[in-house]
Amino acid sequence: MEEPAMTGVTVGAAACDPVHAPGDSGVHGPYCVVAASAPDEATSDPGPVALVGRNTERDLVAGLVDALPHRGGALLLSGEPGIGKSMVLRHAAARCQDAQVLWACGVESEAVLPYAVLADVLLPLRHHFGELPPAQRRAVEGCLALADAAEPNPYAVCAGALGVLAAAGEAWPLLVLVDDLHWADPSSRQVLQFVARRLATERVALVMAARSGPEEEGIEESVPHAVLGPLTDDECWTLLRRHRLDRADAAAGRIVRLAHGNPLVLVEYAAALARSRAGGAEAWDDSWEAPGPLVERAWRGQLRMLPPRSREALVYVAAGRTPQWPLLQRALASDGLTTADLDPAEAAGLVRMRDGACELRHPVLRPVVLGQCATVRRLEVYRKLAAVSSGELQTWYLAAAAPGPDESVAARLVADARQARQRGALAAAAPTWHRAAELSPDPADAARRLFEAAHDAFYGGTTRDAAQWCEQALSHCRDPLMTADIELLRGQACTWLGDPGRAHQLLVGAARAVEPVDPSRACRLYGAAVVPATMDGRMGDACDIAARCAELAAGTHGTQRRHAAVMRARAQALGGDVREGRTALLGLLAQTRGRPGPEERQTTMEIAQGLSWTGDGELARRVLDTVIEGMRRDHSPALLPYTLLARCEVEMWSRWPMARADATEGLRWATEFGHLAMTGYALLQLARLDALRGDVAACEERVAQYERWCGGRLRGLSLFARGALGTAALAAGDPEAARAHLEAAFASAQEMGLVNPCLMPWVADLAEACLRTGARERGVAVADWLRERDTATGLAWPAAAHARCRVMLARSAEEAADWLAVAERVHADQEMAFERARTRLVAGEVLRRFRRPSAAREPLLLARRTFTALDAVPWAVRAEAEVAATGHRTAVHGNEPPPVALLTPQELQVARAIGEGLSNVEAAASLFLSRKTIEAHLTRVYRKLGVRSRSDLARCLAHAGVTG
Question: What region, left, alpha or beta, does residue 449 occupy, with left being phi > 0 and alpha being psi -120 to 50 degrees?
Fold first, then answer.
């Protein structure tokens, strides 16, 4: 086997050397970059016509590629080995005549190298790095080992990668093809997943192919996804005819039956039949029909036909996983073999040379080759490969060669894991820590390394791995302090995975176990248990453990004591002791001002959310604005979903467009992070917004999504689902259904111990539903509960809601007018536009019922104006009917929704960033989007709002209450 020349790769039928645009002498014209070699599906015809069938996939590719001059997108292809994924990628490359084509491919051996696939994608575009904001450029160059990374920030890498691809696409449309995504390193997969969701406005298309399995999870949820199934019988015969086999050939019919529609199996069986016939034989060995995976059994006979030395040499290719030519030569020589021993394998089509490396024709050959090799021999081959390798690759060869625990190899893996962590490649560092733990002879070392693996998995976005590895660490750990630390991380992982009940149980149990030994650790565990206890609907338990946390923190100082106090104050606000909780939260907010660190930022966010429950919504919003701005500036989105949803809670009282924008972005981030609990909460926030607007179908669909995601695991959130459905039913004019939902929600709140009415904004809807269904006595009871909550908490919302109930219960026009005046005084002190309009609507209805049309007219007109501005259509229609019933016929100007209501959630986020004075580049970095996406959204914002400049936009947004 001769050393190959370094040649280009065929795309279609011709080599694809760089092709420049007319008159372009640089590298910015269309070109074909082969970063990791274009894959070659096993077929006798290398051209694009080799694609048989796949009409659906062709259409998806055509839609993506043909739109490239104007917009971008992503597509994920998945299916079993040999099903034709690589051929679809080649078809996409062949169709893309007027764009850059960039290939990358996951390689199993390089899956341990952080950002290996990302390097293949970005390094050919390095001339665009200078167009990135400085922080993103430093992050990208650091992860690619082009510069020292000051501190790991994987999300700055994600945003930077998007910026590079967007810049390349702006210069010339770009098609990125990634094969074998399942073998891409975890850090690269994370970046590709991030980028795939944000290409709609770029001239960049990303098509990825992965073997069906867990590797597709996360990407498939937000990217168009095509699962390649088996070929039909007719398509199988079309493929076999290219190999000169037809239906009259009995052996060909046998091939079709064996292949079950897998094109690679068809081709391999056809080739085997041709070789058999060329040797003068008609039938082949029965081993071809041996049980086992279709693709693997297609090669077993070919492997047995190789000379023994060829089979020995082939093991090095399989174990080396695409070894470079010089390394392979040295490894073979150390075992008395030469590259010439691979000639029979090359002649049989089992190996090929490409880009200076020797590789198996198809990745599935690897387990077949290694499976026919004795374990002792396989370990020896790994040792010889390690002897001729260096760096991280050598470490992993040594790890593969280890027959059992080996501290020297484990120590090398630990060093590699730390280096990956320093580069911000937490997703790659985590499995490295895990393998080090597997090779650790000392159980204590194994426990510590498993904990480190779980830590990096949790903060790298693979929460499920984190929870599993924490359990493994606990099985090795005997140190009570380390056990407490592991339980803390496991509890946090369980919380975000949507199992708050178990998280609460684990955290409290661990706290009680470690409290006699280390009260400080127990304090942290109790503090961490408050949130899952709340999410699980255990308000009493949340208050108790928060109090215990504060007691243990009394003897400490600094962050821990402050965090314990925050948990205690939040629990008080939720559990009914609102005044004391508010006083504590305001004092704690003063202490955290000017503390910019991530821990202090989280504490500040928790304080602000607590203040939103104590009636200090405007202060909470301003604080959350500052926290979100800092997270965006520092490219630290880990807490963004939680913080955005906390701000949404505040904005939902009056600023619906902003609330929807925050909930939509929070949902996107929660889904990307795999935070099931936050995903469910975001869906319910959006469901309530739909319910308030009277969009019953949208509300029901959101709740259905929530049920599919979370089922009954989030008991503390389920009442919000019933509350949203009840409000939607009331808007739709179905008080019976509304009452059923709202009574269930109210009963759940009572059972859980939730008595803060600010978290139960639908209680007044329950009173109205009761009255409209003739249950006046129950309506009075609900009104009395609101009065008691007003007295106990001093909050504005229960006072206003109680006044509305009394308006509906009024026995005379004078009584109704008096209670309307009470409600107006409360609303004057705190902005709750929709609730104020609802009170005015029922007041107008009651006054008209008492034959006071003149008195009813003004509140009804004001209510109609507010409902129209909020785009709450059913409520506006109801108010319009009441206005007409008063005899008022004059059209009221200014009833149209404000222009800002026309913006999509993402357009509003972009407009908000620009309106606050950010440049396009700064807004792109802040929102984790590309500059071109910002420009595209901004163009639509200008058109919808009828503005022509940034100053006009700022004034428009300030007038609408979006900024300022």
Answer: alpha
Amino acid at 674: G
Beta pairing partners, 359: 352
The alpha helices in 694-757, defined as continuous H runs, are: 696-710, 715-731, 735-752
For residue 800, the surrounding DSSP H or E stretch is helix 796-809
The answer to whether the CB of 833 falls within 8 A of the CB of 901 is no
pLDDT in tens, 465-474: 999 999 999 9
Q: Cα–Cα distance between 465 and 757 in angstroms, integer?
A: 38
Q: Report pLDDT digits (tens) over 831-887.
A: 899 999 999 999 999 999 899 999 999 999 999 999 988 888 899 989 988 998 888
CB atoms within 10 A of CB 475: 10
What's the Cα-to-Cα distance from 498 to each of 149, 599, 643, rounded to whole Å?
34, 23, 18
Six token digits for residue 820: 């309307």
Query: In whole angstroms, what is the distance from residue 359 CA to residue 352 CA?
Result: 6
User: Nearest-CA neighbor of 870 among 888, 845, 897, 852?
Assistant: 897
Q: How far apart are CA 959 and CA 964, in angstroms?
A: 9
Using the 8-state DSSP alphabet, how is residue 538 labeled?
A: -
pLDDT of 290 strictly over 80: no
- What whole-number distance in Å separates Cα of residue 52 and Cα of residue 35? 27
Kind and range of the H or E element at 654? none
Helix residue ranges per DSSP H, 321-406: 325-333, 343-347, 365-371, 375-387, 391-401
User: CB–CB of 589/611 below 8 Å?
Assistant: yes
d(CA 791, CA 380): 79
Residues of the chain with pLDDT > 90: what percent? Answer: 44
Q: What is the dihedral of CA 495, 497, 502, 503, to 10 degrees?
A: -20
Q: Is the pLDDT of residue 293 over 80?
A: no
Residue 77's beta-bridge partner residues? 209, 226
- pLDDT of 219: 54
DSSP-assigned states of every residue in 257-283: HHHTT-HHHHHHHHHHHHHHHHTT-SS
Query: How many Cα neighbours within 13 Å face the side chain of 160?
Result: 30
Name the residue among 559, 575, 573, 480 with its Cα closest to residue 527. Answer: 559
DSSP type of residue 902: G
Q: At 297, is the pLDDT very low, low, confident or very high (cuts 50, 70, 90)?
A: low
Which residues have CB under 8 Å from 24's CB, separation 6+? Answer: none
Those residues with Cβ within 8 angstroms of residue 671's Cβ, 6 or more apart along the chain or in another chain: 221, 222, 679
| 373 has a pLDDT exceeding 50 | yes
Integer angstrom CA distances of residue 302 from 299, 323, 344, 631: 5, 22, 10, 58
Maximum distance among all Cα pairs of the chain, rounded to whole angstroms: 108
Average pLDDT of span 713-739: 92
- In terms of Cα–Cα distance, which of 595, 680, 611, 676 is closest to 646? 611
For residue range 750-766, list pLDDT tens digits in order. 999 888 999 999 999 99
d(CA 184, CA 208): 11
pLDDT digits (tens, 9 = 90+) for 602-637: 889 999 999 999 999 999 999 999 999 888 887 878
Q: What is the DSSP letter of 210?
A: E
The amino acid that residue 559 corresponds to is: T
> How far is CA 933 from each of CA 204, 390, 634, rounded to the nearest angstrom?
12, 42, 20
Could you identify the residue written with the tokens 């096993």? Answer: 42
CA nearest to 798, candidates 770, 822, 816: 822
Kindly state the average pLDDT of the residues 503-517: 95
Cβ partners under 8 Å of residue 63, min gap 6: none
β 174-179/100-105 pair status? parallel
Mean pLDDT of all residues in the chain? 85
Q: Does residue 48 register a pLDDT over 90?
A: no
- Under 8 Å between Cβ of 529 and 489: no
pLDDT tens column, 752-809: 988 899 999 999 999 999 999 999 999 999 999 999 999 999 999 999 999 999 999 9
